[in-house]
Write a structure and sequence with these properties.
With 84 residues, this protein is α+β, with helices and mostly antiparallel strands. It has two helices and four strands, in the order ββαβαβ.
Amino acid sequence: MSKYGKGYDNIQLNDKISTADDVAHFILKRINNIPDSERPFMTTSLKADKESTVGTMADIREKLREVNALKLNLSAHRGDVIKK
């Protein structure tokens, strides 16, 4: 369920369209596939396009916190320069 927005934007987890509710399970599955010695170095990468909402991004970050996936790399589409 969306906490910060009216609903979720479409998100993609590898090759599957999902919701933020699927993020925790997806990350736990990935963590279990890597050796214990490499787990502290795992970084989750989140790439957003210009149509993404802040609410969905916040919901995803919250789900990542629930599974202790705290290293996060964020990238986004370059926007227009704000002119004063």
